[in-house]
């Protein structure tokens, strides 16, 4: 679902902002790649250990290219925004089919077999995310109709819930119960969207659920990239089967209380490092993009040398919303329902 979210969130951003600038591309590349590349270089580990990083990077640029094509078609052919998006999404799908369903995908083996496996396993995840982002506007209209008025349409609400449960159950009965990964993995790229769609239907099946928002999950969502890459170096050891023992007696033969305290201590250190790693990454991201803007466009109007300094590095409170999923850009407030759930 992470790659799906990259397609979904960035489609929402580009469709609303139409920001296809070099600054945007470099900014997002830095947000996704800066920290993992530093870890790979200084710890001398292969970058494919963090295989989700190139997946996210490719998904971002695929989404950017799709939305740029839609804007170009809308501008030159004078098509409507909807028709332009449909055309661009169809072209994107065709490119995916021509690459992944032919021997062209073997190009990925030039990098590594691991990349080939990971990319082909998530071959349509970004595209389904783009399609979901395009469909989200229509779904929000339905939510407004179903839950936004004084009278809640209970029939539609329970049909939606039944549909969500049905999709998840269908996936589990037909595919999810398969324990042999060699049997399930080839099927996964074509069926992963079924439980995702079911979850979205359940997650948005009432006004209360639409407006429900977890600050704890938001916090961890903001540092997901950092926790993913740091887990291999801080939170897990011995072929990622164990966690470090920092409290004596927390080994396999130790008491459950000591083991729990050891796990909590390791977890606190792990999350703290991830938080500050994200802060450093976003600070670098903001600094580089503002420097690029300064070099490309010059100082702001009305600025004269010696009178004031141009702020290149934004304080933490100003960069908290700069996320690789564009969380704050991609979720609109729909009145009277404030839709928080995706």
TrEMBL record:
Q: Which family does it belong to?
A: Belongs to the PC-esterase family. CASD1 subfamily.
GO MF terms here are: acetyltransferase activity
Instruction: Please state where this protein is localized.
Output: Membrane
| Gene Ontology biological process | carbohydrate metabolic process
Q: What is this protein called?
A: Cas1p 10 TM acyl transferase domain-containing protein
Domain Cas1p 10 TM acyl transferase residues, every copy:
1-288
Residue ranges of the TM segments: 26-43, 49-70, 82-100, 124-143, 155-175, 256-277
Question: In what way does this protein cross or attach to the membrane?
Answer: Multi-pass membrane protein
State the source organism's domain of life.
Eukaryota
Assign the protein's first listed, main location to one coarse class: membrane
Q: Which key words tag this protein in UniProt? A: Glycoprotein, Membrane, Transferase, Transmembrane, Transmembrane helix
Natural source organism: Phaeodactylum tricornutum (Diatom)
> Could you give one GO CC term from the UniProt record?
membrane
């Amino acid at each position: 679902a992470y790659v799906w979210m990259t397609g979904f969130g960035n489609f929402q951003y580009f469709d609303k902002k139409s920001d296809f600038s070099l600054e945007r591309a470099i900014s997002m590349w830095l947000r996704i790649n800066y920290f993992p590349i530093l870890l790979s270089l200084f710890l001398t580990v292969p970058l494919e250990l963090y295989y989700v990083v190139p997946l996210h990077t490719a998904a971002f640029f695929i989404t950017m290219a799709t939305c740029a094509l839609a804007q170009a078609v809308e501008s030159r052919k004078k098509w409507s925004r909807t028709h332009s998006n449909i055309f661009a999404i169809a072209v994107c799908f065709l490119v995916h089919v021509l690459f992944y369903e032919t021997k062209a995908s073997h190009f990925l083996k030039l990098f590594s077999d691991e990349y080939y496996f990971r990319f082909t396993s998530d071959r349509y995840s970004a595209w389904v995310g783009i399609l979901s982002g395009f469909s989200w506007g229509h779904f929000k209209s339905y939510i407004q109709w179903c839950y936004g008025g004084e009278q809640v349409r209970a029939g539609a609400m329970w049909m939606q819930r039944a549909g969500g449960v049905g999709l998840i159950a269908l996936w589990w009965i037909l595919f999810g119960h398969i324990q042999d990964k060699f049997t399930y993995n080839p099927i996964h790229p074509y069926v992963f969207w079924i439980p995702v769609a079911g979850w979205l239907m359940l997650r948005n099946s009432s006004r209360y659920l639409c407006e429900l928002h977890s600050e704890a999950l938001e916090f961890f969502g903001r540092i997901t990239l950092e926790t993913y890459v740091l887990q291999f170096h801080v939170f897990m050891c011995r072929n990622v089967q164990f966690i470090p023992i920092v409290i004596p007696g927390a080994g396999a033969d130790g008491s459950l209380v000591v083991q729990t305290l050891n796990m909590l201590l390791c977890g606190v250190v792990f999350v703290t490092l991830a938080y500050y790693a994200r802060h450093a990454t976003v600070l670098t991201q903001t600094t580089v993009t503002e420097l690029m803007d300064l070099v490309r466009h010059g100082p702001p109007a009305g600025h004269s040398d010696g009178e004031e300094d141009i702020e290149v590095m934004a304080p933490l409170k100003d960069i908290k919303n700069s996320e690789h999923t564009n969380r704050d850009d991609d979720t609109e407030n729909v009145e009277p329902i404030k839709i928080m759930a995706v």
